[in-house]
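Notebook entry, structure prediction.
Reason for the run: the old model in the group folder had no record of what sequence produced it. Starting over properly, with the input documented here first.
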Amino acid sequence: MKQAKILFVLDKLNVGGTERVNFIIANALNQQVYVSTFGRLVAPFETTAEVLYLNELSLLQKLVYGFRHVFKKLINQPTNLVDLPAKTDQLIEVIKKKEIEVIILNSQFLLMTETIKKACPDVKVINWIHFDKAHFQERHWISDQVLEEQLAFCDCVVALTETTRQALLPLQPNTVCIPNPLTIETGGQVSTLEKQVISFVGRLETYMKGIDYLVEIATHLPEDWQLAVAGPASKKELNTFHQLIKQHHAEEKIIYQGTLNSEALKRHYLNSSIFVVTSRFEGFPLVTAEAMAFGLPVVAFDVEGPRDVLNFGEFGQLIALGNVDEMLAKL
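New structure, fully documented this time:
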């Protein structure tokens, strides 16, 4: 049987959940699979897919898009999409050269849908949306009109929760709900729940992940309990994190472990007794499902994503967003 040629489109190859699930799916497909990226980071996960680095622009392009970047900054507009036309052109070249049959556009690359479909009408375009509809649009500055226009050109939309699927169905009838798969094997191991440690996993993105809430919670934990934090961070995010810790005098309460590989992440879950989620918004919090797989009880703010994973409170404690006192009481 002829193998289909499939292209996954990512921005940068970070170690976040979006990148992890893309590589998990890419590796599981018995097809000819490519993963394209517009960053220079080496793929942080083992993969059988061919990784295509597409960020090389000509000097003229760099000057043009550099000017647009500065202009967008000056008028307070998002800068992560200023070079979208150049990126789209590169992808169209790849589609034609590699004879791609299916392209999977993650998150903001949904904005390429119409141009790609018009240039390559025979290619099946799948939009994979990793947040709830409202925060996806807010995060990537996508209006209702633009979202509707782009989704009209795609062949399928993949949402991570049923709530998001229902919100997108009026715009694209072929919208399906496919929750993220687990990307870490438990090997049958579960936590003994004997350690006086609460664990957290996630990028230290202060607003989205509620890192300010997290540090405040850590400050008020019982004397013999600590909070173990794992996840990547930019230099700016890490500085903000340390400033919050200092501001709340939480130096003795928080253990920051940085980015962990699969084995270290397993130990992180196994060496804790509770898992906490402080996000203000999420798509499908993969780490919450992983924590549950390791037998950890979960306490989370009641937002879409954790709400779906915990089945509206059936499998964990849901707390009104921002209610730190109630979160501490449930912990």
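Summary: Residues 74 and 251 are 38 Å apart (CA to CA).
The old model has been moved to the deprecated folder.
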